[in-house]
Amino acid sequence: MKNNTGTWSIYGTELESRLLIGSALYPSPATMQDSIEASKAEIVTVSLRRQSPEQAGGQAFWQQIQALGKHILPNTAGCHSVQEAVTLAQMSREIFDTNWIKLELVGDEYNLQPDPIDLLKATEILLNDGFQVLPYCTDDLVICRHLVELGCQVLMPWGAPIGTGKGLLNPYALSAIRNRFPEISLVVDAGIGLPSHATQALELGYDAVLLNSAIAQAQDPVMMASAFKCAIEAGRQGYLAGRMPEKDTANPSTPTLGMPFWHQTG
Amino acid sequence: MNIIINGQPIELPQTQSLIQVVENFGAVKPFALAVNGQFIPKSQHLVYELNEGDAIDILSPVQGG
Asked: Is A258 annotated as belonging to a binding site?
């Protein structure tokens, strides 16, 4: 949701940072913590899995996340059916004490594409149950329209398949979603690999980006987190500043009037 | 009674409440529970009655993207 204060919102929660950061795949818990801090993100994504007694139920991880003092965004990663996603969302709401849910429903194992049909079904059930749904979806304008009509105030279309780091594969489609839904908070989720990809998303007018691997799997995750912070700020300012008109022909920037050593011919 | 916890078959000597079974299994807070794929809220943990063959899932926070 665009406004003049530089903030954006998720279901009424005002946010300054435009980076949502994942908590997985870091080389160590300390690196995760330092990276999240360096990113200045206000939202951290987490998940739920079967408790492992040998890891004391993941208590250490949860305490570490709580100590960061960030908003928690639980996901339904890995769910393949509406029932699985709804159950996991309900369990997440109880354990994390939040109505936010990053709704993920795998439609195909090949590219882990969100299932557009089941996503709509699960979204409707969860919205009716009081959840504030952040749907991870494809960059399909019509699916996005249906999600908005169901009541989603946030959309999270993919930039590229998750974990690929390929960047924004279809800027045109992403731009169309931005233009079609000016009042909806838009987050590019998945596929981002470089700070420049995040900059591009913000330049397109997206409100934020959600990423994990691009930071966690960098050679220096903490430095990369800082790089993303700067890149996102640059992209947002670039969007607000308004780009120059694009042209098909060259136009010199240096004045041609008064050019020395020029001899008129003919 | 035979049940399944987190995919592991368990034999119970007698009928127990859901929370008793989960605590005896060694579950550590925080956790959320589901039986046969259905969420069971905290308010039901003490009174929920298990049946033969029920599958319990004990879920806890993990890293996520």
From this structure: no
- The residue type of A185 is S
Q: List pLDDT tens digits, range B27-47.
A: 999 999 999 999 999 999 999
**A213 marked as part of a ligand binding site:** yes
> Could you identify the residue written with the tokens 């700070």?
A195
Q: Do B6 and A50 touch (CB under 8 A)?
A: yes
Query: Where does the pLDDT of residue A3 fall: very low under 50, low under 70, confident under 90, or very high at 90 and above?
Result: very low
Q: What is the mean predicted confidence (pLDDT) over A160-168?
A: 97
Does residue A195 contact residue A7 with C-beta atoms inside 8 Å? no
Q: Of A28, A46, A51, which to mutate for an interface test with B (greatest number of B Cβ within 10 Å)? A: A51
| DSSP assignment string, B9-62 | EEE-SS--BHHHHHHHHT--SS-EEEETTEEE-GGGTTTPBP-TT-EEEEEEEE
Residues 150-189 of A with CB under 8 A from B: 162
Tokens in use for A13? 């929660």
Task: Give the pair of three-digit tokens for residue A87.
Answer: 């159950």
Counting Cα atoms < 13 Å in the Cβ hemisphere of A67 gives 12
pTM to 2 decimal places: 0.93
Residue A201 has pLDDT above 80, yes or no: yes
Average pLDDT, chain B: 94
CA dist., res. A48 & res. A29, Å (int): 17
Query: Any idea what the Cα angle at residue A170 is, between residues A158 and A146, rounded to 5°?
Result: 55
On whether A191 is known to bind a ligand per the annotation, the reply is: yes
Q: Do A51 and B41 touch (CB under 8 A)?
A: no
The backbone torsions φ and ψ at residue A226, rounded to the nearest 5 degrees and listed phi first, read -65, -40
> Measured between beta carbons, which residues in chain A are less than 8 angstroms from residue B28?
51, 53, 56-57, 59
Write a three-state SS string for A50-98: ECCHHHHHHHHHHHHHHHHCCEEEEECCCCCCHHHHHHHHHHHHHHHCC
Report the residue from B25, B42, B59 with minimal CB separation from A49.
B59
